[in-house]
Design brief:
The structure holds 2 protein chains of 2 kinds.
Chain A (H helix, E strand, L loop, with lengths): L8 H24 L16 H8 L1 H34 L6 H13 L2 H15 L5 H26 L2 H9 L4 H29 L3 H6 L7 H10 L4 H31 L7
Helix pairs in contact in A: 1-11, 2-11, 3-6, 3-8, 3-10, 4-6, 6-8, 7-8, 8-11
Chain B lengths: L14 H4 L8 E10 L2 E11 L4 E5 L6 H9 L6 E6 L2 E2 L10 E4 L11 H11 L4 H14 L15 H13 L5 E5 L7 H18 L2 E6 L2 H7 L2 E6 L2 E6 L1 H6 L4 H6 L4 E11 L2 E6 L3 E6 L10 E5 L5 E3 L14 E12 L3 E8 L4 E7 L14 E6 L5 E4 L1
Parallel strand pairs in B: 3-8, 3-9, 6-7, 7-8
Antiparallel strand pairs in B: 1-2, 1-4, 4-5, 9-10, 11-12, 11-14, 12-13, 14-20, 15-19, 16-17, 16-19, 17-18
Classes of the chains: A mainly alpha, B alpha+beta.
């Protein structure tokens, strides 16, 4: 059904303003990353100079590598745990405290990051854990797991329960039924959940700065500390690369969730 | 009390004829009960189903028929009682351990698999050799007439085609017992009627035992050789369709299965093989003595609308009826034209109303009655049933 065939002038204007408000700063950042001039605010012609500079900057490369590793590791763990939690909540028998459990699972969604970060820091200090890659990874897993659970649970909820029953009826033991019918059908949602967790971890500054240790700064921490000393055009180049990476991941995630919804009967989880 | 229905040979359908019943029933349900929280969904049901039977569980929604079916499939475990299949108690067995397959109400086709893979799904799990699977799938595809659609995904099929895939998938493993949960509910009327015939034909040809769950009494009457009517978790009556319709055991069953006129009785008098019953709404009625004796509890006289005849002057004399014919005077109060038949509502002079269903056997309306016309409604004692209220 086609409801709106043509936008009015007013709509075009407000759309343009809205988009400009959201994306103009990013666009300027991207354009200035190709600036030849040393001064951030003065245009000196097109150049890839700052990209070369970035790839020569050992500390920046190390921070990027750290961020990527943390993002991949925490997204993977969060996806595993989040999927299990979603399955338990939507498929399990009604166990005691189920409502409390699901409420607690979603709490990190609305919890201020400062609180999450601080409490995790206190925990790690109490446990006398050496802060670095693993502490950040665990912290990011805590943060992103609930997002995965939300995405997967909404897909599971829209999935017809009788599909699994049909599989059992046709000779599958319960676990086998889940693996051969349910898992393929929720796979796109799991992929989308992983991507979401990956991007969340990649751009997190607050929790990472609470839980990381000396010598293992993530990219956002590194960028933030550089910027405090004055914006170098190199930062623009790094940010442009991060934006490109996140854009690619988001596009893949939304395509995956579209695929997921077209395969089943119900709406997309994202 | 539940019903074990030992009656035989009265099946209205021919399903029983093609496959002589073996001595032992294929399925025996003994005192099965299931409670959800405080709600007793199935309350002590006992039932025998013979091999080759087409059995229907009929009842309004919430009567427990689907729960009973799900216990047969293994999705719910009964709290009490036994379910014996070929002599083996399967009440606690898991679904995949039972030689029973089910066709789901919404078909539950696997959306990520093609028609062929949907049908082959159960065969692969049963450890069938690869070389045997392909011919069996082809056989099933031919059986439900889906040739040429093997590679389609379920969402590329029409409702009727999906129903066929679901049927083929459930039949592919050659189960001892096939369960059908409202199999035709999602189809439109015309398609439903043709599919009913196909299902009956298929069941007869395969000689398989079918148990169908439905809330549609016409569907149950058309297809099943025996019907079990369920009410609030209990089996109210188990009987072949004709017996269920003509000799319902209670007022509730009579009203649930088809239309019926009911007159509350106030007095009764024995007169040979007849009972003379005084009613408040229809005066004195003469009825045949019921086969089952009944006490002095409240009861009513029931008559199906198609057995009530109408005429302008008086009962048309027919041989055999003698003098004992119930004749009621009244006026036509309402006319409902249904094409094949017309239902007249007659307001009786004695106060009550009676419905009469008259076949429109002539194209021109020479026989039709008009509103407010003075009329005589009559029926024979043998057409009446006495029902406890």
């Amino acid at each position: 059904m086609r409801t709106i065939s043509r936008l009015s002038r007013f709509n075009i204007a407000s759309l343009a303003l809205g988009l400009a408000f959201l994306y103009l700063p990013i666009l300027i950042l991207v354009i200035y990353s190709f600036n030849a001039s040393r001064l951030v605010t003065v245009w000196g012609g097109w150049s890839l100079r700052w990209y070369h500079e970035f790839f020569a900057d050992r500390a920046m490369i190390e921070a990027s590598w750290m961020s990527l590793r943390v993002a991949v590791a925490s997204a993977t763990i969060a996806t595993l745990l989040g999927t299990l939690a979603a399955v338990a909540l939507s498929r399990g028998e009604r166990f005691r405290g189920r409502t409390l459990f699901s409420g607690m699972l979603y709490a990190p969604l609305v919890m201020p990051e400062v609180i999450t970060g601080l409490s995790l820091l206190l925990l790690f200090v109490a446990l006398n854990a050496e802060r670095g890659f693993w502490t950040v990874t665990i912290a990011h897993t805590t943060l992103t797991m609930c997002f995965v659970a939300v995405v997967v649970q909404s897909r599971l909820g829209s999935l017809d329960r009788s599909l699994e029953e049909a599989a059992m009826d046709l000779g599958c033991a319960p676990v086998r039924a889940f693996l051969s019918v349910t898992l393929p059908l929720i796979a796109p949602a799991i992929v989308a959940g992983w991507m979401l967790a990956f991007t969340l971890s990649l751009d997190d500054l607050v929790i990472a700065s609470f839980t990381t240790g000396p010598g293992s700064a993530t990219l956002p921490i590194r960028i933030y500390s550089e910027v405090r000393l004055g914006v170098k055009p190199e930062i623009n180049a790094i940010c442009t690369l991060v934006i490109a990476l996140i854009a690619v991941v988001i596009i893949i995630a939304s395509v995956a969730s579209k695929l997921s919804s077209s395969q089943g009967e119900s709406a997309a989880p994202l | 009390m539940t019903d074990e229905s030992p009656r035989t040979g009265a099946a209205a359908n021919a399903a029983g004829d093609a496959h002589p019943a073996a001595g032992e029933p294929l399925l025996r349900i003994e005192g099965v009960a299931k409670t959800f929280g405080t709600f007793r969904a199935v309350d002590g049901v006992s039932l025998d189903v013979k091999a080759g039977e087409f059995f229907a569980l009929l009842g309004p929604s919430g009567c427990g028929k689907t729960t009973l079916l799900r216990m047969l499939a293994g999705f719910e475990a009964p709290d009490e009682g036994r379910i014996l299949l070929g002599g083996r108690d399967i009440a606690q067995a898991l679904p995949h351990e039972r030689p029973i397959n089910m066709m789901f109400q919404n078909y539950a086709l696997f959306p990520h698999l093609s028609v062929r893979d949907n049908i082959a799904f159960g065969l692969k799990r049963s450890g069938m050799a690869r070389a045997e699977i392909a011919p069996r799938v082809a056989e099933m595809v031919a059986l439900v007439k889906l040739e040429g659609l093997e590679k389609r995904k379920p969402d590329q099929l029409s409702g009727g085609q999906r129903q066929r895939v679901a049927l083929a998938r459930a039949l592919a493993r050659r189960p001892q017992l096939l369960l059908l949960d409202e199999p035709l509910a999602a189809l439109d009327k015309k398609l439903r009627e043709s599919t009913q015939r196909e299902l009956m034909e298929l069941q007869r040809r395969l000689g398989m035992t079918f148990i169908i769950v439905t809330h549609d009494q016409e569907e149950a009457m058309t297809m099943a050789s025996r019907i079990g009517v369920m009410k609030s978790g209990k089996l109210a009556q188990v009987a072949p369709p004709r017996e269920l319709y003509e000799a319902p055991r209670s007022r509730w069953i009579a009203e649930f299965v088809g239309d019926i006129n009911l007159f509350d009785a106030e007095s009764k008098l024995r007169d040979g093989h007849r009972l003379v019953i005084g009613t408040r709404d229809a005066g004195t009625l003469v009825v045949a003595e019921p086969r089952q004796p009944f006490g002095d509890s409240r009861f009513s006289v029931a008559i199906r609308p198609e057995k009530v005849k109408l005429s302008r002057r008086g009962p048309v004399s027919e041989a055999g009826h003698g003098t004992a014919i119930n004749v009621l005077d009244g006026v036509i109060a309402d006319i409902c034209y249904l094409g094949g038949t017309t239902t007249y509502k007659v307001k009786l002079d004695t106060g009550g109303t009676v419905q009469a269903s008259v076949a429109n056997s002539a194209r021109l309306d020479v026989d039709a009655y008009s509103l407010n016309q003075q009329i005589v409604a009559w029926f024979t004692p043998d057409d009446c049933v006495v029902l406890p209220s």
